[in-house]
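Hi P.,

Sorry for the delay on this. The queue was packed all week, but I finally got your sequence through. Input first:
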Amino acid sequence: MIDGHDSGRIGWSVFPRVDQEQKLVIRTAAPVTAEAFDVTLCFLSGMPKRFFGKFALSCTTDAEPSLDGNWQRLQPLRCSAQGTTLEESGDGYLVSGSGDNMLVDAVFQLRVQVPRRAVTGFRIEVVPYRKPGSSELRLAPNEYRDFCLTEFRVEAVLTGSTNIALGCPVKASHRLWADCSASLLTDGLPGSYAHPADAGLGPDFHFEIDLGAVRQIDHIALRGRGDGYGLDRMSRVLVQLYDRPPEAGIQPVWQMIDRADGSHPEAGDIDVLRVAEQGAFRGRYLRISSDNPVDLSPQLAEVEVFETITAKPVSIKADGRGLPLGENLRVPFGTAVLTAKLAISGPGLPERLPLRWRLRGLHQDWLKAGDLSVEISHPPPGSYFLEAQVGHTDGEWDSSLMSIPITIPTPFWQTPAFYSAMAGSSLAVGFLLIHILNRRRRARELAEWTYQTALVEERRRIARDMHDEVGGRLSQLALMQDLILHGHPLPPEARQSLQTLAANTREAVDALDQVVWAVNPLNDTLAGLVEYLSYLATSYLSPLHVGCRLDAPFDWPDIVVRAQVRHEITLAFREALQNIAKHASAASVSLFMRFEASVLTIRLTDDGCGLPDDYQGPGKEGLSNMLSRLAMIGGSCTVRRLPEGGTEVEMRAPLTQQTKQIP
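Then the structure:
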């Protein structure tokens, strides 16, 4: 029933135990986090009415799901069925219909809200019931009283929307057209719509949406039908907001009549309602009605509610120095770069929301902030307001503003009196100072360039000599040992010793190549280091038949990495590879590399047997060596056992963002 085949004679069946409660636990392959799940239950055995009569669905976050673990009953946001009907009962179960129909099979579809934690399993509970007119307990409405669940499928729903009404429960005061559910207004599907079934109800009919808590609202969006039919039913729509259940005598805290002039939208139009003079734009319960004279009003496809989202400052720096956040921020005159880090916080928000900003008083145009940071170059003296707005997922900008007053004082030497008194002398002294400073700067730059050039040439010479002289002699020595082994009869003990000597010689050649790589200044780049680590992992693991998955960007910043730093990182990385080869018994390894916030992160993850309990002790200095090597360059190394099995080694090394100056 989880093999991906919806139909067939094989599935979950419990015959002949058809008068007993049945439970089934389905574990997820890995923990799953989502805002909701779409659940499909297929009863496609080809035999009539072999579907659940009364059942419930639960989920768990236990690490090891079991029949009697910690389970939370799931209430569907909406449910439907093909081949029968499906309704919620008062005791928390779902009940299917048992009437005759033309279809043999049935399919149940549900959308359920889940806790915002990693779900590890689902449980189906099927309870016996009595069919009207029969005294026998049964689990299904067919003559055998047994079901056959042929497929159980769950899909995670990740909305990524700032619409807080999405999935919220909706009630209607009267029956709806085609007996559809009022939850169609908050299902996120603008193709569905709802309106009253009976004509002439007028303002007595209403929809009511429960937002779950009192919220500060930015705007409400009303979507009309997209097919162009019955558009005049969306006119004079009264929208009311309550902070408590809207019972008799309770007054709304805010209300507005959309299209009070009697007009109606075009097909697919969206009416956006914002706060005006009608009261506080905050509440929990949203009631929608209409006194439109057109029958079957109001007709809506979707109701979207967007909570107020305001950006907040995290830090403000002037040329890298932090400034105290206060009511009036004073920025030192002459600041070259003013940087502000902002944050958008709130439960359930998408990872990335658009943000725009402006320095009002200096320019009125809005600028996009790509990474929640604002950078202003050489702000002139004056009084300004740093303003920022957050964009919602429907394309509307939040009406709230983050506004920080900023003052940049004017220095005395920029006053008109000072300019008049010092104009002539300042020009002369200025030219002289500039000339002297330029000469000194050029001299320092030339000396520094000469020193760096000599240092690079010396390193190149050392690397070249080591490779040509020492490496060539070691390679020749290994070749001579091979010739002796193949060309002369030797006693077994001598042959074994000579083979060991040849192997050690080749290992010395490999070690020398690593030292040459570390010394060679041509490799003093972040890209060269990453490329070499990738080559080490592949060349080391491939002969062991261990798969290696690389997760690293194609482009790396042009950053100089000192030889000592490269050397320590390489040796620690090699030690981690040796531990995997010797102890992990892994089938595959993942190599993750990123450079963020001036820190290089290297993460090796294997699917092996995990870190043993006795990984430290005499003769087991590998991990401590890795820690000490990373500590020598100001970095860190952590090793941990993964809950699902395997080991993860994470190395972090700070790198100064300095571009290469000497080719």
